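Notebook entry, structure prediction.
Reason for the run: the old model in the group folder had no record of what sequence produced it. Starting over properly, with the input documented here first.
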Amino acid sequence: MPIVVVKTLEFDAWAREYSVTETALKRAAEEIEAGLIDARLGGFLVKKRIAAAGRGKRGGYRVILGYRQGDRLIFIHGFAKNEIEAITKRETQALRKLCEIYMQADAEVFGRMIAKKLLLEVGLDEQDT
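New structure, fully documented this time:
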């Protein structure tokens, strides 16, 4: 069974504002599933670098996501490296708690969140074509 890759509505708004494409998100998900994680932040929370157009990963974006290997990956928070260096301990704790809720949801509840568009599936969109 393939991993389910979704994003929160807040993350989707951020990604659109910064022109982070669905292709970039899918690539990041594939790298994570292959074991290429930039930092583990406790619990199911991880950090991943995503390249910005023309700048690469080093000067690009950082995304915080919930990840359970072989099951689900949820993009929760993103920020540009040139705007902030890192998230605070308090933000990390809050994101970890949010992530726990998503990860503890059983498959039926998780599926309903997607069906009701509370979580959006990551797929191709207009910016990728």
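Summary: The chain has a mean pLDDT of 89.
The old model has been moved to the deprecated folder.
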